[in-house]
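[audit] Reproducing an earlier prediction to check determinism. Same input, same settings, fresh worker. If the tokens differ from the archived copy the diff job will pick it up downstream; this log only records the rerun itself.
[audit] input (751 residues):
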Amino acid sequence: MFRVIADWLGLVSSGLIPRRDGLLRNGPRRWAVSLGLGLLLPFALAYYWAGLGLDELLFRGYRRRPIKRPVFILGVPRSGTTALHEALAQDPQFTTQRTWECLLAPSVSHRYLWRGLARLDRFAGGPLHRLAGWINRRWLAPLTGAHPLSARAPEEDYLSLLPHLSAFILVVAFPDSHRLWRLGRGDAALTQTERDRLMTRYRRSIQRHLHFHATDQTYLAKNASHATLVATLQHAFPEARFIACLRDPAEVVSSQLSSLTPGLEALHGRIDRDALSQRMLRQLHFGYTDLLSVLPAQPPGRAVFVPLPAQRNGLADTIREVYSTLDLALADAFAQRLATLDRQAREHRSGHRHSLNDYRLDAGRIAERFADVGAAFDFARAQPVSAADIQALEPQQRVVVVSDAAPRRNGVGTYYSDLIDHLRDEVETIRLIAAGDPDQPMRHWYEAGLPGDDTQRVALPSPFELHRAIADARPDVLIVATPGPYGVLAGLMAKGLGARLIFGLHTDYEALATLYWGRLRGPINRWFMARINGLLFRRAAVVVSNSAHMHRLAADKGAQRVERVHTPIPRDFLDTEPAALELPPERILFVGRLAAEKRVGTVIAAAEAHPQCQFEIVGEGPERETVRAAAERLDNLTDRGWLDRCQLRDALDASDLLILPSRVEAFGTVALEAMVRGRLALVSPGCGIADWPEFADGLLVMEQDETVTQALDRILEQSPTVLAECGATARRQAAAMTRRCVHEWLSLIHP
């Protein structure tokens, strides 16, 4: 109940607080209507919840009612779902909810109440019946011309979710509610917890219906709005059978917009039709892709597609084909009704008139927007088709990556820049929003140097500009790469934007807090970073890491789902042939942030102990002066400073051995880059890359408590043949990792 109260307040506030991308125009009418509707809702909710509460006291046995192999009629709106539902509802093997049950009697208690009132009304001559008819003709019919209401007609049972404020129809009353628009893209936009909660409520609605009617009939439901929840329904009702109605997208878009607009404008006055068009195009496209990607993966006999021409030109044959595909019995009595139903379907002419021009759209634009859908299904076909016979559509996702790390500035910045390059051809769009990105600067409210490294900055962006930048990209998936201000703000915004959140855990900031802030401030900052991680863990649909340590950390801190992913390699590192490896290795390279956790001092000590080898140190950080002083003192040590990616590739090719002796290193991307260039790579046990078993033959790992000097002595004693094979193996293994990495990320983006 507390959640419903919070959702009610959210609906009211969505009407009172103007939104930049909203449908409603600002003004007294907006506020009066929103406030008026908001004040009426508590009375309706009190009525609904009184009945639901009585059910738990008087009819609790409804929860034990089984739902056996239900049949769900889905489809994009305006695709013939209503006509098919009304036809199948005449088959005695089915039971389905009626309009009066969905709107007035969602509980068993309500239904007994209204049954009693109906009997009294008939005894009194039907005054209430006549009043209801007048209200329908006078007030409701003008708003529902595209979908007339009748109390006894079969109706969409998602209306039984009105007591939970989880019916998409509420968007007519509150068109600027982000929560309702998220509900309209359920499989993609709702979290797993939200989907489970919604299905629990929906299941209980069905059980109440079966309990009231005391029937073992097969439950039949029709919901166009559930086209975007087909994967959720499939998971919640594993025995369910699906009938998916489809229609040409140009006709659907025009019809759906013209069916919503009268109700919206009757309540709110003029609305932003362009904004409505954009939202509906996105939602309808997702409805098509969800149906065409999920249902073809069902086993044969579980789902069937019904194009609208099949209903219009041969409803009887269509129903027979559907029954045959879904293994439904066709009783003689209903079979005899099919001829009448077929004739009515052929003679039916809709009075609903609509045009794309009314919304500044045209057929060409719709064809372009739904090109992938049109290529996957023939909407002109005149027969139903089993979903198992259709090639599943691969959904094209819009992805935004948000990072506090500047592009290619450190390991995390490099990881996601490389990943985006590899994914660009695999998704519809992918965009990086990062602190310090010179190509897309953003206003910051506050900036400071990173603890222990003033060469890198942590910045608090303007929340309004960040929200605008993310919202303009309309992401289906939002990847948060870091738990800094950019990442935390984006994580908090993801739910409202209807984007699925993926959190990348690549650095153990809790461990670094103790390292940099000392004994007094360290525990405080460690506690703070733990709270930040916990916040993102709870909100993320999945947490990804590229090391065993990070994986365990996320699992231990309560992440809903944790996946370990590989690391990508820059395309130019893969596609260009590296220079030959010279052995024994006498050209030694260190690349990384010049900071305490990287143990740069051990590299300097190794240079002192091996004057015959040439050492280069690449990077910036708080220990830069120490490195510069050592380079002036030692003839075999060069301070290269920070290098861009092209310069880094050249530096790797000019070396024989990369060393990475870090105390804390989530992965160690530069070691992988060295491997793909055919170099030897020596890493400490604290580097995450050392945990990957597939690198056992291509990666050199220091012993526990072994210094760089000792490890280098050990390597120099090995046979050049063995080392050459190690370098060749490293290149093959690193290239294979990138292919696996891209596949893993695509499976996360397309769950």
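[audit] rerun output stored. Observation attached for the diff report: The chain has 28 helices and 20 strands.
[audit] end
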